[in-house]
TrEMBL record:
The keyword Nucleotide-binding applies. The keyword Transmembrane does not apply. Residues 544-706 form the MyTH4 domain. It comes from Meloidogyne hapla. One of its GO terms (molecular function) is ATP binding. This is FERM domain-containing protein. Belongs to the TRAFAC class myosin-kinesin ATPase superfamily. Myosin family. One of its GO terms (cellular component) is cytoplasm.
Length: 1063
């Protein structure tokens, strides 16, 4: 109990071993618990532990027991047999980490001590540290954990292993011994052993040749790299081990890295914000957190920062658990803010590495011009011994900086202290330089020319960030920083304190002129029913409160005559409280219903949009409940996707978002900026008004932000059966979505004729190009809900409507209009769109095809369905005839006869050899039919006695054609010029022609006929206008005149979708 009171409570249940220890007889003797830790040199060390032992305690006990002096970069790793993970050496209890493994049913865990990270300037003075690191590297090479890119490198490592196995006592190679132990020096997958029928091992000739090759490579490497062709004495065993360690640190930086899960709060844009930060001897690498850490490679790195580029490292403590911040400033002026639960450990690690680099570096850069003649009175030596400097000169010190740091003279007389024997690369001269005029570079090798130019271009930044780290900076540059301290790095690597920084922005000043005054008396609330304020004065209106509002915040809404709008605002605020958990409601509702109630009034009344922003900012100001604050940021993110704040409030919102140390605040700020910049310039859809959605957030948007996926990737399907994903924003319109797809697919020409379709069950509807993507999906699902049968569920004697039905939908991208489609002109369109969309129409029998043509088409379809490297499945042909022949011709011959005809056709000369050629040939032949590219509708009619009752209507670029449904006999074709008017309803479609004749079709697809006629005429008019502009013809064409006649009645793009069963 004393330990628990001292160290605090555990977070996880007890281990199986803990329980067994309490129940065992040995516990009477106070034998205690021990944990076994496996070392890289095959040793196992027992460490005594108790329930409150932290990982740091275990690590400290271990290094003391094995007498490990240089322990930087070592860490404890936990393995459960399948994977291995690092345990952060900190205040976390070891028992809690082990308990998490056992909760998943993994009781066979092991602890390992491993070298996790190398310092850029590794000392290698501790023999045990060197041996443990070497053993780990060799074992990793043998098991394939560390892979060499070149055979020469692997041969050198094998030669070094052989030399160390001899303990450096012999410089001669015993070839037979090397051959016997070759598998111990090379990765296991290099030399493979085969088994014969008797399951006895034997080496084949191929493997023997491989062994001889590797023996020769190792012999050559041994003589050249270790014995140095007998020109120098052989190196010591420790020196060879250090060479192996240096090779590993240089070539496998990601394998020897310490990984931290971070979230990019602010800074230059990266592909993703959820990142894994890898710290190694090369610098900082940022990787996508979605990728497997154990399989990371050079290609998975999103961004790299070398230590020489760092100007400032800072740490900020947050009141929210797990939201501490790490600040990184680069010499080029870029500033990054990352949030991580381990931000403190990460900042300490980086500061220790930078401090070590400062102490061991021999490279420096001159920060300002220095002429020894101007400081003669301060010099203690002759004039010729002082080196003249120009700003930006690269300098090389004779000794690392730590030699000078140990000198007490620096502390007493830093300004007049000189470093001796310094070389100026520019002037090729040596001499003394004043310490205060140079900056030590955090690197172990001479900077390359490109990096040096980068440093020279950043001299101003160097002066600001390093020479004067405590100088206060303008507030305008620090809005992104919190009110906490940060640690800067001075030239000696000593942490300094900078700050304080500006306070988070609130609406206090804005409220003083734009909010109504708080009420002092009692006012009953008609939103929450029984609430009456309790006689207390209303709290400050600009900060968080658990109480409902008694009137809208903004004065202009609280004015007389706007009672209905004011009531709607109070209803929205009440559901904001419920969503954030500030007010508990019974029964609990779906979050999607809350957001509907919150945002629907503001979408209906423009005057309420600023009110919603003010209400959200109010509840996010001084909110002491982290869960409530997180849900408030979710609502802010959703709100920005629906509509922007007005101009007079926009600056307040932007300032509020920029000064909040919350990841969601940064996302919201970028989201608002992106929405305003894109939507004001996109497609010229609106020139005087900003974007505004028509419906509340869709379920996809709500789930995305609840799971912190601020980038929404939506799946879409193509006619050829493939599917892909495209990023979609809340303000994305159908036309924007189509453009992204066209760019992804690399479609030639333009989007002419293509469209987005929403499929809900068996229903399909086309999305108008100017509709907001999520708005239209909301409308489709709402229509489906209203027209579906709602089941009533009896629950506890209460009848509840099943409003939570999930109507799954799919987004399809297809060709809608077939205008000037020429097979072979764009092969990609032919394969992805034209062939998959024309084939079903052909199989339904809509084209008038004779027997010989059907055989030819069947052979082409069969060839198109067969892989290029395989032969068509003739033996199973009778089972797939319905996939090859029109439905009206299937019964004209027996399956065996069709099989014989098609087989014979496949053997003819000139038959395409590949699937792609067969599809193109099919399209070229079917395009000769007058019905190619048509949309077909089976209808009934009784108005015209001269026509049969069942008709097949085909709409294409030539107009609308009528066919007899039974025999596909052509009746007549009406051009678009001849159609003067039409009307559609749920069960009929009525046409009026220019000669006064009328047709009345009985169909449930009238709306689709309406949509196709409108779309074709619109496209033809657009095409005609473009031709007129080229020819400078001013009069409108006859089509435009005809359209103008019926446009007021029919040429309206409805936003209420009607779903169809059509093709």
């Amino acid at each position: 109990m004393s330990r628990t009171i001292k160290y605090g409570p555990r977070r996880e249940p007890c281990l199986k071993a803990e329980f067994a220890s309490v129940c065992s007889i040995d516990n009477l003797n106070n034998s205690g618990l021990f944990v076994q830790i496996n070392l890289p040199n095959e040793e196992i060390v027992d460490i005594p532990i108790h329930s409150q032992t932290t990982i740091a305690d275990v690590f400290q006990l271990l290094i003391e027991k094995i007498n490990l002096n240089e322990f930087f970069g070592f860490g404890l790793f936990l393995s459960n047999g399948q994977n291995i993970r690092s345990l952060v050496v900190g205040k976390e209890y070891l028992m809690d980490a082990l308990s998490l493994i056992e909760e998943k049913g993994n009781f066979d865990w092991k602890l390992y001590l491993r070298k996790e990270l190398f310092l850029p300037s590794e000392n290698n003075s501790d023999d045990l540290c060197v041996d443990l690191s070497y053993r780990q590297i060799i074992k990793g090479i043998n098991f394939g954990e560390y892979k060499c890119k070149k055979e020469e490198d692997l041969a050198i490592l094998a030669a070094q292993q052989y030399f160390i196995s001899l303990n450096g006592k012999s410089t001669e190679i015993d070839i037979s011994e090397l051959e016997d132990n070759l598998n111990d020096y090379l990765p296991l997958n290099i030399l493979k052993q085969n088994k014969d029928d008797n399951k006895s091992l034997k080496i084949t000739e191929e493997i023997e040749e491989e062994c001889q090759k590797w023996i020769q490579l190792i012999l050559h490497a041994f003589r050249k790299k270790i014995l140095n062709n007998c020109e120098t004495p052989p190196p010591s065993v420790k020196q060879i081990k250090c060479d192996v360690i240096k090779y590993a640190a240089k070539n496998w930086p990601l394998h020897f890295s310490r990984f931290f899960e971070v979230y990019k709060f602010s800074g230059p844009p990266l592909p993703v914000n959820q990142l894994t930060m890898a710290v190694n001897s090369h610098g900082i690498s940022l990787l996508d957190a979605r990728c497997d850490i154990q399989n990371q490679n050079k290609q998975s790195i999103l961004f790299e920062i070398e230590f020489i580029e760092l100007a400032n490292i800072g740490y900020g403590r947050s009141k929210h658990e797990g939201a501490d911040a790490l600040f990184i400033s680069l010499l080029n002026g870029d500033r990054y803010t990352f949030q991580s639960p381990l931000a403190r450990e990460l900042s300490h690690l980086l500061i220790n590495i930078l401090k070590d680099l400062h102490q061991h570096s021999i490279y420096a850069i001159a920060l300002k011009d220095y002429n020894h003649c101007t400081v003669q009175h301060k010099m203690q030596s002759s004039e010729n011994s002082v080196l003249s400097l120009s700003r930006g000169d690269l300098l090389i010190l004779s000794s690392p900086l730590n030699k000078y740091l140990n000198n007490n003279e620096i502390e007493n007389n830093e300004e007049n202290y000189f470093i001796e024997n310094v070389e100026n690369i520019r002037s090729k001269m040596r001499g003394k330089v004043p310490l205060h005029s140079i900056n030590i570079l955090t690197c172990t090798e001479k900077p390359k020319k490109e990096k040096l130019n980068f440093l020279l271009s950043s001299r101003k930044i160097i002066e600001q960030e390093i020479i004067n780290p405590t100088e206060s900076k303008p507030n305008s540059d620090l809005y992104e920083y919190p009110t906490f301290y940060t640690a800067a790095i001075d030239p000696f690597g000593i942490p300094l304190i900078c700050g304080p920084f500006p306070q988070p922005h609130t609406l206090e000043r804005f409220a003083s002129t734009n909010f109504r005054l708080p009420e002092d008396g009692i006012r009953p609330s008609d939103v929450f029913g029984a609430y009456n304020g309790g006689g207390c004065p209303e709290p400050e209106l600009w900060r968080h409160s658990f109480e409902p509002l008694r009137a809208p915040l903004l004065k202009r809404i609280a004015e007389p005559g706007k009672e209905e709008i004011a009531r709607e605002s109070l209803i929205s605020y009440s559901f904001i409280l419920k969503y954030m958990g500030d007010y508990v409601s019974h029964p609990q509702q779906f979050y999607l219903e809350y957001t509907d109630y919150i945002f629907t009034p503001s979408l209906k009344y423009e005057i309420l949009r600023d009110e919603i922003y003010c209400q959200l900012i109010k509840q996010l100001t001084d909110n002491q409940n982290p869960l409530s604050e997180e849900r408030g940021w979710e609502l802010m993110w959703l709100c920005i996707g629906l509509f922007p704040p007005s101009r007079f409030l926009c600056r307040e919102v932007e300032h509020f978002l920029r000064t909040r140390l919350v990841p969601m605040a940064a996302d919201c700020a970028m989201r608002l900026q992106k929405a305003l910049s894109q939507c004001n310039d996109t497609n010229n859809l609106t020139t005087t008004t900003q974007y505004c959605r028509l419906s509340p957030p869709h379920q996809v948007e709500l789930e995305a932000i609840q799971y912190r996926q601020t980038q929404i990737y939506h799946k879409f399907y193509l006619p050829d059966g493939t599917q892909e994903t495209i990023e979609v924003e809340s303000w994305t319109r159908a036309k924007d979505f189509s453009k992204k797809i066209a760019t992804r697919l690399g479609l030639l020409n333009s989007l002419q004729g293509f469209g987005l379709f929403i499929k809900l069950g068996e229903k399909v509807v086309c999305m108008p190009e100017k509709e907001y993507f999520f708005d239209f999906i909301n409308q489709v699902q709402d229509w489906a809900r209203k027209n579906s049968r709602r089941e009533q569920v009896i629950n506890g004697g209460k009848r509840i409507l099943n409003c939570g039905i999930n109507f799954n939908y799919q987004v399809h991208f297809m060709r809608k209009l077939w205008l000037d489609v020429e097979p072979g002109k764009d092969l990609r369109q032919d394969i992805i769109f034209n062939y998959p969309q024309e084939l079903p129409k052909y199989l339904r029998g809509y084209h008038k095809i004779d027997k010989n043509e059907a055989i030819q088409f069947a052979a082409l379809i069969l060839r198109a369905q067969t892989r290029d490297e395989k032969q068509p499945p003739i033996q199973h042909l009778q089972h797939i005839l319905h996939e090859l022949l029109p439905i009206d011709l299937l019964k004209s011959h027996s399956p065996n006869e069709w099989k014989k005809f098609i087989s014979f056709e496949l053997q003819k000369e000139g038959m395409p050899k590949t699937s792609t050629e067969a599809k193109l040939c099919f399209l070229q032949r079917i395009s000769k039919e007058p019905t190619f590219g048509s949309a077909f509708f089976e209808v009934k009619q009784s108005a015209d006695p001269t026509l049969c009752s069942k008709l097949l209507v085909a709409i294409n670029q030539d107009g609308m054609s009528l066919y007899e449904l039974e025999n596909k006999k052509h009746i007549r074709t009406y051009g678009f010029k001849q159609i003067s008017n039409w009307q559609s309803a749920n069960t009929y479609f009525h046409l009026t022609f220019d000669n006064g004749n009328r047709l009345l079709f009985e169909t449930t697809l009238g709306h689709k006929l309406d949509d196709l006629l409108t779309s074709y005429i619109q496209l033809l008019i657009s095409k005609q206008e473009k031709e007129n502009e080229k020819q400078k013809i001013s009069p409108l064409s006859k089509i435009a005149v005809l359209l103008h006649q019926y446009k007021p009645n029919n040429y309206i793009e409805s936003t209420s979708p009607i779903l169809t069963n059509g093709n």
